[in-house]
Amino acid sequence: MELIEICRRAKEAKYKVQDLTTKEKNKALLKVADGLIKDTKTILDANNADYEEGKLSGMHQGMLDRLKLDEKRIEAMAEGIREVCALEDPIGEVMESFKRPNGLKISKVRVPLGVIGIIYESRPNVTADAFALTFKAGNAVILKGGSDAINSNIAITNSIRNSLRSLNIEPDAVQLIENTDRQVTTKFMQMNDYVDVLIPRGSAGLIRAVVENSTIPVIETGTGNCHIYVDKDADFEKAIPIIVNAKTQRIGVCNAAESLIVHKDIKDSFLPLFEKAMKEHSVEIRADKESIENLDGAVPATEDDFYKEYLDYIISVKTVSDVDEAIDHINKYNTGHSESIITENKDAAKKFLKRVDAACVYVNASTRFTDGFEFGFGAEIGISTQKLHARGPMGLKELTSYKYQITGNGQIR
Amino acid sequence: MELIEICRRAKEAKYKVQDLTTKEKNKALLKVADGLIKDTKTILDANNADYEEGKLSGMHQGMLDRLKLDEKRIEAMAEGIREVCALEDPIGEVMESFKRPNGLKISKVRVPLGVIGIIYESRPNVTADAFALTFKAGNAVILKGGSDAINSNIAITNSIRNSLRSLNIEPDAVQLIENTDRQVTTKFMQMNDYVDVLIPRGSAGLIRAVVENSTIPVIETGTGNCHIYVDKDADFEKAIPIIVNAKTQRIGVCNAAESLIVHKDIKDSFLPLFEKAMKEHSVEIRADKESIENLDGAVPATEDDFYKEYLDYIISVKTVSDVDEAIDHINKYNTGHSESIITENKDAAKKFLKRVDAACVYVNASTRFTDGFEFGFGAEIGISTQKLHARGPMGLKELTSYKYQITGNGQIR
């Protein structure tokens, strides 16, 4: 199908999806979850074709792992949809209501965004995830997945559409752009008359490409150059487990730590403990001039290192004279994601919370908690690193907008 | 000064502005208001240079009027700033606060957006307005006004900066891009590392240019193809004054009505009354096939007319069979600004409020009320017609973002 026709259909569908009741949406989500289980064989066959293709073309093992589906992963996809079904419906909430002196009654009411475009890479489970969240928030969605997972994505989308159709719900609530040509993707990013918001999910490169080419409003997600600052008043028994957790529990995620900042007054006592812990987890250390003398196995850090989101077993180290210098360093190099201070000093903590410019700022906790589930939102479509519209973990509410409904009895200006 | 240096300074300044207390900001705003009055002569001299230049280059009379300042207009600018000073400071508000089962305390706190870029045309009063609102919401601002008003804008910005400096507040809280070359403006729209949000204020052409060229998140404002739908159950004594008000009270504004939609069952009785009222205000009528037979002096409307924001003494007329067709027509042609239904029928009103896709949807009132002052927000930076971040009149709150502040005692995942 032509891109323009997909967009037209999505715009038609959004009016139908926004009219669905919570009950209708929930019934549909359960049906879709059951449908995915029922269609397991078809989906796995399609996925296998993608996987074989990926192997033949020399796809990296990590990518192959993310691409691969099995019965358990399809069950997890269905379970994820059931969890979204259990979440509260944000649509229709009266956010504010007031009466003006001239008698006009103004209500600010939560409404869907409309048509959401999701551009993502080779993880086919995003297809089901993104549908569930956008649909529950009353939106129509257009999905553009990576070419590597095209057969899987077609099979999953077809399964969802069939389930919707069986309940007489407009199947165009979810559509997949099957043509994965770059030109089509670029054209999609300029369909302002049809698409209300674009959300890219994936690598920094993908997100940059969308930001640069899109004329549709974009929500940037998921680049995290996250720091842990160990203050002079830090409790080392908190600091070490937090750094180990933030750096090594899962290295490839956006809320993993990439850099340690250490106060000069404690570097002699703290850095040897830090290095020991990093060695136990085979983490390479790239250290600045001041810290490298306390670190036996570290290599010198370049300016470039401080800008890097390694997503690997590597951490940079920067020494500072006080909390102000730590804050300035973070505000210069970070990506606005998650930052943590380890300190028992309330003033330092307060200053750090106030002045660090990031979506999530922590005191004495791991940056790994920046996550929709960990925040209690139940699910997330991504972590926003921009300041417009939504910041940090984005749940259902962040997939909505609002409108003002104004009732009068003949008022004029 | 080079653009990059302006951007660097704004990024430095934002950390200082966000640390100011409400008292410090208010004191500064009052000083700035007094300063503008004190500098009246300098500002008027500069403005006169722009005005003479405009006349020489054959500027349209309407544009010249908007460009022209006098003592009264400078007083109004100062008064506008004092009004912003009186508004509640949105910064620091704890929007939500909750504790997770693992003991993490999470607070969602309102913070400034950071650096805001405003791109506007030849109205020099925007310079003072935009500073006051962005500053009160804790932001640094970079202004890019039209070349036609460059001398006025330099004089106003200098006055504001001098007032800030006299209170030891960072003058780079407000900067003007004095180089009005198109290339510089385009480069400005791609300063993602420094500027958090761009807000264009002006014509549809300006806004389109910003949306197409910016890689920074944009808030689209102020294009209004607004409709009034007169239902079969309308009270004509409400309908006529509302249409006259919405169409003619001020023709050049975005919340003015551009199109009448009429239910076929009442067109014979209503349209003659409508035509009489329009004639009294010299409004040209462009009518569809069904309505033109009831209108003596109307010309036929083309498809193109229904897409037009005339901003002139012209109105289009479309006939429909029911409220559903009216809603579909609006959702096809509107710009998401303001739409009104005139009806005594509660079901029709309810359907219209729910299904029309626009920032502000009215029952029995003029679309002219879509305005920050009329909504009680005290002031506005513009009317957003997009769904991301803010919709409708944007006051101080809409110039803010939020961050999550999370306090733990050693939590790891």
From TrEMBL, chains A, B:
Keyword Transcription: no
GO cellular component: cytoplasm
Classification via SUPFAM superfamilies: ALDH-like
Key words, A-Z: Amino-acid biosynthesis, Cytoplasm, NADP, Oxidoreductase, Proline biosynthesis
Matching InterPro entries: Ald_DH/histidinol_DH, Ald_DH_C, Ald_DH_N, Aldehyde_DH_dom, G-glutamylP_reductase_CS, Glu-5-SA_DH, GPR_dom
Domain Aldehyde dehydrogenase: 5-288, 314-376
Pfam family, one: Aldedh
Name used for this protein in its record: Gamma-glutamyl phosphate reductase
TM region positions: none
Example of a GO biological process term: L-proline biosynthetic process
Coiled-coil region: none
Gene source species: Butyrivibrio hungatei
Function: Catalyzes the NADPH-dependent reduction of L-glutamate 5-phosphate into L-glutamate 5-semialdehyde and phosphate. The product spontaneously undergoes cyclization to form 1-pyrroline-5-carboxylate.
Compartments in which it is found: Cytoplasm
Gene: proA
The keyword Transport is assigned to this record: no
EC number: 1.2.1.41
UniProt family annotation: Belongs to the gamma-glutamyl phosphate reductase family.
GO terms assigned for molecular function: glutamate-5-semialdehyde dehydrogenase activity; NADP binding
Catalytic reaction equation(s): L-glutamate 5-semialdehyde + phosphate + NADP(+) = L-glutamyl 5-phosphate + NADPH + H(+)
